[in-house]
Amino acid sequence: MKIIFGLGNPADEYGGTRHNVGFAVLDAYAGEKGAQFQPKTKYKALIAETKLAGEKVLLVKPTTYYNLVGESLRTLVDFYKLEPADVLVVHDDLALPFGTLRTRVGGSDAGSNGLKSIIQHGGEASARLRIGITNELRSRMDDVDFVLSKFSANEAKALHDLQPKIAEIIDDFIGGDFDHTTHR
Fold first, then answer.
1. Do residues 132 and 93 lie in contact, with contact meaning Cβ atoms separated by under 8 Å?
2. In angstroms, rounded to a whole number, what is the distance separating the alpha carbons of residues 109 and 159?
3. Backbone dihedral region of 118: left (phi > 0), alpha (psi from -120 to 50 degrees) or beta?
4. Is 19 in the active site?
5. How many CB atoms lie within 10 A of CB 37?
């Protein structure tokens, strides 16, 4: 079993913001796979379940808000008795230029409160798909205002155009080929 865990904030006001790129990716991926999100209060999340490459996969959008996402992940990992290697965290990254995709296993929180929460709840060795969100506005705004700002129409289109590559990375993770993915 695998968990694809997108970071974001659940309220409608955060839709289309840089901080919610993890949710946007999972929404698009679930749509491609015909999976529907359902509220699962026990896990503090919206979860879409599917089967891919012979493996049960949970697409998870935590409802705890960004800074507490580790609580949701911990309940899922404990219930299903999973290892960190069974989890791919999809999140925005301020250190990367807009549209850049990077993968890694483990690492620091790099100042991300969402990753800090995941690490605090035992997810430090999980795989990560980092999606760059930085653009020329970054130098003119503080971190909070920037990550909570909405993507421009051009950026939203560019993210849409990146979705096949993102889906390929997720598919590789599910299929057990993430080591190869990290070195592309």
1. yes
2. 23
3. alpha
4. yes
5. 17
The CATH number assigned to the domain holding 24 equals 3.40.50.1470
What DSSP string runs through 87-124?
Answer: EEEEEEEEEEETT-EEEEES---TT-HHHHHHHHTT-T
- Structural domain harbouring 45: 2-182
By C-alpha distance, which of 86, 44, 78 is closest to 61?
Answer: 44
Q: What's this model's pTM, rounded to 2 decimal places?
A: 0.94
Structurally, how many domains does the chain consist of? 1
pLDDT of the chain, 184 residues: tens digit per residue:
999 999 999 999 999 999 999 999 999 999 999 999 999 999 999 999 999 888 999 999 999 988 999 999 999 999 999 998 999 999 999 989 999 999 999 888 777 888 899 998 888 889 999 999 998 887 788 888 899 999 999 999 999 999 999 999 999 999 988 876 665 4
The answer to whether residues 149 and 137 touch, using CB atoms and an 8 Å cutoff, is yes
Element (H, E) at 13: none
Active-site residue, from 19, 91, 121, 160? 19
